[in-house]
Amino acid sequence: MTSSPGRIFLSRIVGQDVFDPAGDQVGKLRDVVVALRGPRRPRVVGLVVEVLGRRRVFLPIGRVTSLDSGQVITTGVLNMRRFEKRSTETLAIHELLDRTVTLPDARTGTVYDLAMEQDTRRDWYLGSVAVQESGKRFGRRGATHVVQWDEVTGLVGQEPGQGATHLLATMDEMRPADLANALLDLPTKRRAEIVGELVDERLADVLEELPDSVQVEVLGVLDPERAADVLEEMDPDDAADLLGELPPATSEQLLALMKPEDAEDVRRLLTYEDRTAGGMMTTEPVILPPDATIAEALARLREPELGPALASMVYVCRPPLETPTGRFLGIVHFQALLREPPSTLVGGLADNDIDWPRPDASLEHVANLLASYDMLALPVVDETSHLLGVVTIDDVLDHLLPEGWRERDSDRAASDAAQGVGLRG
């Protein structure tokens, strides 16, 4: 979709960087706020900008000096209060994309883009609607049309089963934490529609970034079979935490629907007390036998799904190599792997000179060990030296920081990034 002078399609600017007059980036454009007025074209009142700390704030359209494709420039004055949509406002990207509308010739279609246009008074409106026809023949997509706002019906009011295909296309490159943040700003109905179209692996990553209450809400809109599939895609410790928030009967139903090997790990984690090493650990670290080479170890650590903490070391054990493993022989730090020839065996590098925590070790004890030995992760072993799992530093911090720390930290980061303060209007 090509923009033209005086007309800017939203797909071209959503996700673009927002700059102040000095050329410093202040955030990213995440949505366009409009005031719907029935069949008349809606006035653009402002932009939703995501600033440092994933906080979303409102930028009045009058404070935007340039909207050229590829960059958005502001006057530099931002109100750092968290954006809250008013009842008279609509989020063009999140709420209007994928709506079913009727074209002038009575054919129906789906909105896949919208265009902003500026009038002679330099006010911005949504003037054009890009629609893809619903009808398909011989497996082909329906024809596409760009029509004026007042030439279609169905853009105003509730739609029972709105899709999310085109909206998710605009979110394809967003990190799970950013997508989770976007979901928090949406009505429950729209959130459920988006969740319904996310693939299981992507939804699992997003769920891990949501507050407990929203996790429970999201899982509740899925049928039990799909909910079990999503839980299988989550890290076992996160899945256990989520199931622990559910009624016991619901939790047991979902565990019964999961693959036995996945359910076994989660059930074991559910037996441990919260704020203990067992209650915080994950059961899927990188485990290798002593005769594995450094080349094999580095290949495993390069797997993209590994987070930084789990990729910081490998755990050397006798078979079996799934937790609980055979005898735990020690850890090998990533840096140690880089210092030796690729053919070197990891068993000769394993360090095992620390009294590793048991699953009942307290949160404070685990945190003390991580700090004392400058480690990003810590093995958890039983009394017979079998590896049960690994506690990572991010899980420890989640338990040490006060409840709601993410939101407060975002508030502080946003204040630090503020170029000025103004009232929304």
Automatic annotation (TrEMBL):
Gene3D superfamilies assigned: CBS-domain, MgtE N-terminal domain-like
Keywords: CBS domain
Stored InterPro entries: CBS_dom (IPR000644), CBS_dom_sf (IPR046342), Mg_transptr_MgtE_intracell_dom (IPR006668), MgtE_N_sf (IPR038076), MgtE_transporter (IPR006669), PRC-brl_dom (IPR027275), PRC_barrel-like_sf (IPR011033), SH3_actinomycetes (IPR058838)
GO CC, alphabetical: membrane
Ribonucleoprotein in keyword set: no
Record keyword Amino-acid biosynthesis present: no
CBS domain span: 281-349, 350-410
UniProt-recorded Gene Ontology molecular function terms: magnesium ion transmembrane transporter activity
Tree of life domain: Bacteria
Name of the molecule in the record: Magnesium transporter
Species assigned in the record: Aeromicrobium erythreum
